[in-house]
Write a structure and sequence with these properties.
The chain is mainly alpha-helical. The protein is 33% helix and 1% strand. The protein has 20 helices and two strands.
Length: 410
């Protein structure tokens, strides 16, 4: 039974509402394409500064009040540190708070020219290792969020208990969507994510490729998503359209050449199970009578070098199938007889057999010891209607339509 797109969407929505930690539990940490890896050769304790020193975020990060881009460097200026850490103390290592350079720059011992005070740090050699933050691939304005009364700890969760603040303390998407829900603030992806001129998101970023990770929908693009994306696309096609154009969909669904990523590298070894279930439907991309048969013949799975061999009793003596699969005309079919298998899943049969395989036994021209009627008892009373509805199947075994019209009961 197939689950409707509406049901899928409702399940995901309820999961997020009832279990608000659901998205965070699946979170695999900062995404490199959004938050590039950082180099932070510093020793800094936010917990000490916020709790013990009673510092406010803006005391050190003064520029956030006017910052409107993620490219803005909102780290504290050196003077903000020197206001408390007095490097001019006679013994800076014993000062309170400690003021030696190595307090914040571990292992760093500078050399100053003679007569230059130690608060003139630009004159020191060598310079300490630089802090490399990278630019987040997002559109974000600290200024507009602060003006709306959104406090720092609303987005930078956990800093009050952390030592060094890293990209692990930058806001993740579930935090953003708590406000960007379409009511309090826009829920359009392009509100925060960098977009192209046509409105779609820019997925090819300098730091990597932007891909959904399934935090809110069943849309994790890793693994075999190319094969399993159907329910997610049906449940929320607008979300897909944020990155994909109809042309991208058509390239796979109607294109002649399919991407290799649809199947795993060893799929040729594992595909029989799915082919028997017909899930996914193989005929969406493959023609059973050409693609499947040709491959099976080349690989020796199917032998079509000649007709099946039958003994005097009419039983097949050379067959891929188990004994009894093709019984003699007078035999009593078992539950594994081919007629039940054919009715249950004819698509599995045509993976190897062509119509000639069926007419070899079921056509009126077949030898008497092979001939078998595929019709149930009493079918002759209804064959006229079957002939009128679609004569293609009839003439495969019986020959011309004229002969059939004369034979069938009206």
């Amino acid at each position: 039974m197939r689950t409707s797109p509406a049901t899928l969407l409702m399940v995901w929505a309820l999961t997020t509402l009832v279990f608000p930690g659901f998205a965070r539990a699946q979170d695999r940490g900062p995404f490199d394409a959004i938050y590039p890896p950082q180099q932070l050769p510093l020793a800094f304790d936010h917990a000490v500064h916020l709790a013990k020193a009673k510092a406010d975020c803006k005391d050190c990060h003064a520029s956030i009040s006017t910052s409107v881009r993620t490219a803005d460097r909102n780290l504290p200026e050196e003077q903000a540190c020197l206001d408390c850490h007095d490097v001019l103390e006679e013994n800076p290592e014993q000062a309170s708070p400690k003021a030696a350079c190595s307090t914040c720059h571990p292992g760093y011992v500078p050399t100053f020219p003679e007569g230059v005070p130690h608060d003139q740090t630009k004159a020191a050699t060598p310079h300490p290792p630089r802090v490399e933050l990278g630019t987040a691939a997002l559109k974000f304005s600290h200024q507009s969020h602060l003006q709306r009364g959104i406090t720092c700890d609303r987005c930078h969760v956990g800093l009050e208990k952390a030592s060094l603040g890293t990209r692990d303390h930058l806001p993740m998407m579930d935090q953003c969507t708590s406000c960007h829900d379409g009511r309090q603030a826009s829920s359009k992806c392009a509100t925060c994510h960098i977009s192209l001129p046509d409105g779609r998101l820019q997925t090819a970023l300098p730091t990597g490729t932007l891909l959904p990770r399934g935090l809110f929908r069943n849309d994790d693009h890793a693994g075999e998503f190319a094969r399993t994306h159907g329910p997610a696309a049906q449940a929320d096609s607008e979300s897909c359209a944020a990155c994909h154009t109809p042309k991208m969909c058509g390239a796979c669904h109607t294109g002649k050449v399919k991407p290799l990523s649809i199947h795993a590298a060893d799929y040729i070894l594992t595909h029989p199970a799915e082919a028997r279930r017909d899930d996914p439907t193989c005929s969406t991309c493959h023609r059973a009578q050409t693609f499947c048969v040709d491959c099976h013949v080349r690989s020796g799975v199917t032998d079509q070098s000649g007709p099946l061999m039958f003994n005097a009793a009419g039983n097949a003596t050379r067959s891929f199938h188990p004994p009894g699969f093709v019984d003699s005309l007078g035999g009593v079919p078992s539950s594994a007889h081919h007629k039940f298998e054919a009715r249950r899943n004819l698509k599995a049969c045509v993976g190897c057999h062509q119509e000639a395989s069926c007419t070899r036994c079921h056509a009126v021209e077949a030898p008497a010891y092979l001939r078998a009627s595929p019709h149930p008892p009493g079918f002759s009373r209804h064959c006229g209607r079957a002939l009128r509805d679609n004569d293609r199947g009839c003439v495969k075994c019986h020959g011309s339509r004229a002969a059939l019209e004369a034979m069938c009961e009206r």
